[in-house]
Amino acid sequence: MAFIADRLSRIKPSPTIAVTTKAAELKAAGVDVIGLGAGEPDFDTPDNIKDAAKAALDAGKTKYTPVAGTPELRKAIVAKFKRENDLEYTIDEITVGCGGKQTLFNALFATLNPGDEVIIPAPYWVSYPDMTLMAEGVPVVVECQEENDFKITASELEAAITPKTKWVVLNSPSNPTGAAYSRAELRAIADVLLKHENVWVMSDDMYEHLVYDGFEFTTIAQVEPKLKSRTLTCNGVSKSYAMTGWRLGYAAGPVELIKAINKVQSQSSTHTSSISQAASVEALNGPQDFLKERAEVFKERRDLVVKAMNECEGLTCKKPEGAFYVYPSCAGTIGKKTPDGKVIETDTDFVTYLLEAEGVAAVQGSAFGLAPYFRISYATSTEALTEACARIKRACAALK
Ligand code: PLP
């Protein structure tokens, strides 16, 4: 009898974490590697947030908090939704977890029965299908087209809905493509969902503040208030506030769902760190000006990378609205030979070649459910990005 549970055979470890770990190992071994795999800002957590954490420690806020999060934090989250998204929630419609990842996991675990379907537009954030599988659900992956900027269309959504559909996951701006849904695109999706009363929406808005060129961020419950009673609006401080290590995410939705999520959490992590919660109150209630300043830096880096990728032989790259990722196609390199005589057959071969030949770590598109592409995270210094782009260009030119 195997000791490890069967359910683990359904899932795989996160491929993005695997690439980041491999790049870190190579670096530690003295190899000159530029990591473009990590999904985390290179900026530090702002000082006012760190100070709030220090003050919380000194004030002895070191004990258990309510499972759903401290009342102060949930009040700050209610105020955030009102201020930024024009959404009215009450404090008992809010839950706080150990990162956005845990909140999403808890929601799926709390709601999926075996065989329930979750519609996941591809390319997708790597964790949605595996979380669904862990919760005994069935991921229904809808491959989105590059011509549609990798976004699911109303008709593709309509075609994917079945009587077993429980959730559709929307992630805007997207990891891995950076594409964001406009109000009109969300309106069209909402019109489909209004016809299917049993389908719930998981709106993953983790990259809300990372939008460029004046793009207006909107979320589905705001676009169609009638969907609010079956939407879980998910967000967190990790990306916007450069707080990945603090492990704090949150979600808002109907009380019955939030209670179910809290029940799962009460028997697993109980809650995230009391200090992270105190810091996040300051993140949400404190000065917000730096968000725009940082977004401006990310926009410049996006422009730099998109331009450079379009100058590489065999690559083409769309310019997305947000997040800190681009998703170039490497279709034009497939079938070509590396200087060592290896044929590039897949996007995995291509990123392996980039790592081995030039020490650039990126993630293959097949990990995100749409090939042949690769994901570049430009959340790294402009200097490192410039060097990485030069190396990718050289690697592409060396393919015959
Ligand atoms: N959702 C998306 C789309 C993400 O890219 C990530 C992190 O990479 C998360 C959720 C989870 O964020 P957290 O670090 O808060 O768990």
Automatic annotation (TrEMBL):
Catalysed reactions listed for this entry: L-aspartate + 2-oxoglutarate = oxaloacetate + L-glutamate
Top-level class of the enzyme under EC nomenclature: transferase
Keyword tRNA-binding: no
A molecular-function term among this protein's GO annotations: L-aspartate:2-oxoglutarate aminotransferase activity
Pfam families xrefs: Aminotran_1_2
Highest taxon listed in the record's lineage: Bacteria
PROSITE patterns: AA_TRANSFER_CLASS_1 (PS00105)
Domain Aminotransferase class I/classII large: 32-392
EC numbers: 2.6.1.-
Classification via SUPFAM superfamilies: PLP-dependent transferases
InterPro entries: Aminotransferase_I/II_large, AspAT/PAT-like, NHTrfase_class1_PyrdxlP-BS, PyrdxlP-dep_Trfase, PyrdxlP-dep_Trfase_major, PyrdxlP-dep_Trfase_small
Cofactor(s) the protein requires to work: pyridoxal 5'-phosphate
UniProt entry keywords in alphabetical sequence: Aminotransferase, Pyridoxal phosphate, Transferase
Family as reported in the entry's similarity comment: Belongs to the class-I pyridoxal-phosphate-dependent aminotransferase family.
Protein name: Aminotransferase
Organism annotation: Thalassospira permensis NBRC 106175
